[in-house]
Amino acid sequence: MSEPHSPVSRPLSSHLRIYEPLEAFSPKERERIKAGLLGKGGREDLDAAETDATLDRIVSGADDPFPPDGAEFTRALTVNGTTLYCPSQLVLRSGLAAESIISSAPRILAELMLPEEARERHQRRVDRIAAETASPRINTRESLWGIPFSWFVLFQESDPTEVVEEGDHVRTVRIVATWAKAIGRARFAVANLALAAPDMTMLDELTSLTEWLEQFHPDSVVELDYGRVADRVFPDESCLDVRLGIECLAEGDLTGAAAAYRRLASRWIPIRQLARAS
């Protein structure tokens, strides 16, 4: 299935988000959360506004590519009558992304993309927001060109799922699970992989993911937002395949585990290869 036409070619991005109750945030964070809520429209409008703001910064030609203080957005989710919030935290996330670029990209390229003066200004923004934060945590994880298999561990096919369609295309798919279920599934998978496949890369990923989840309020909800990649894979059975693969490894069924991996690979490797396509 081909994706909807877009005037701007963008990487396929997916997100793992934690929605927390308002009491989990500091007073200053609550102010930013309320200011970041869009008065009208739904999630699609917010996603579009956030993307447009990012693209404007990229193409503006300004010497500061970082988001300003007022560029924050807030996503809200109502579960059983309680509204939970996921702040975009663009300033903090941009700071982390900049650190990654500086440490991994050639120095000349890094300086060209992220001028030192702009980095210093942004660091002051980061320091100010971090000082106002109840605890230093990032509510959103982003993945380009595919979804990490470890993310699927947190969800099951019986979890509430929203399919957002636009014409003949799937705009996104969102799966939600309570924090308690998600972290329980992650811990179960870590325990089984530690015994059955201690050298497996997914074990390290799941250990990091579990440590991340432990930072959040126990009344939180975890959301997997496929983004535009959903149009290429939905209907998707990756949650089931990942779970079956881990169960097969725990039972010593290497044939079953290999079959589950082949199903995952046939679905996701072609998407990851798009990152290198011209």
From TrEMBL:
<protein>
    <recommendedName>
        <fullName>DUF8083 domain-containing protein</fullName>
    </recommendedName>
</protein>
<dbReference type="InterPro" id="IPR058396">
    <property type="entry name" value="DUF8083"/>
</dbReference>
<dbReference type="Pfam" id="PF26312">
    <property type="entry name" value="DUF8083"/>
</dbReference>
<feature type="domain" description="DUF8083">
    <location>
        <begin position="13"/>
        <end position="274"/>
    </location>
</feature>
